[in-house]
Amino acid sequence: MNRRESLMTLAVLGGGGMTGCAVSQSTDPRMAIDDGMAEITPVYIVTYTEGQPTAFVRADFLLFDANKEVQLRADGVIKVNGIQLGRDPKELVSYIGNIPVSETFTFELTRQTGRVTQHSFSLPQLEIVNLPRQYLGREPIRAVVRSAPIPKGVMEDKYRMTVFGRFGESRLLGKLTGGSELIFEAGQHSASPPGRYRADIYRQQRTALKDISNSKTGWAVLSHIQEFLIDVPEQ
Asked: What is the distance between the alpha carbons of residues 130 and 151, in angstroms, rounded to a whole number?
């Protein structure tokens, strides 16, 4: 599934349809130019890897009912913590940037001069007390985390783990039990010869904009990642 299909799927899951329609025409039928007034669906993404000085951010805007991505008009701009995002040259229309890491990321959208909306989000807290040391294939993996309150408006809070093996990735789904113990079970397993491999654990939270503001549609997805090495023993 590519990025565009993922966005449209998430819009369905998040109730992100809209009734308006951007009236400005585009030469690409997959895209509309924002008219500054119609209701659009913002999709805000923040991904932070522990130890890095910046977080990667992305902003997309959708006309879900028309199956179109939205380009901001000439006087439109999207900023995060005061830093303007630029167009992603690899995508039809998407706005990206690397933002100095902060506890809070504030997206400021100007659709036309004088029409500004702001949404602020906190990074998911991910403090792992005990990292797993071995990956034994399909056997459950345990880790201990320091629990933290879930921010207001979060509609989905999940943990995932990935082991980057010799022949592919093993992906594990995490469940928090007892307030601090994480149990990961294999969702996708890729066998690897014995050795030490790169792995990561991430916590991801999704927030509906309608639950934290006057926005009728849209959501934000924030991910906090910790990378480490894990041993695969002889089996």
From this structure: 24
Contact 113/75 with Cβ under 8 angstroms?
A: yes
Tokens at 109, concatenated: 């959208």
Share of the chain above pLDDT 90, in %: 64
pLDDT of the residue at 40: 92
Whether residue 130 has pLDDT greater than 80: yes
43-72 average pLDDT score: 94
Helix (H, G, I), strand (E, B) or coil at 162: strand
Distance CA 226, CA 224 (A): 7
pLDDT of 2 over the 80 cut: no
Residue 23 or 119, more confident: 119
Contacts for 97 with CB less than 8 Å, ≥ 6 apart:
56, 57, 80, 83, 84, 85, 86
Distances (CA, A) of 179 to 40, 154, 229: 38, 18, 25
CA–CA separation, 16 and 71 (whole Å): 18
Phi, psi for residue 211 in degrees, rounded to 5: -85, -10
Burial (CB count <10 Å: 0-12, 13-18, 19+), residue 159: buried
Backbone angles phi, psi at 107, to 5 degrees: -90, 125
Q: Would you call 172 exposed, middle or buried from its count of C-beta atoms within 10 A (0-12, 13-18, 19+)?
A: buried
d(CA 179, CA 145): 9
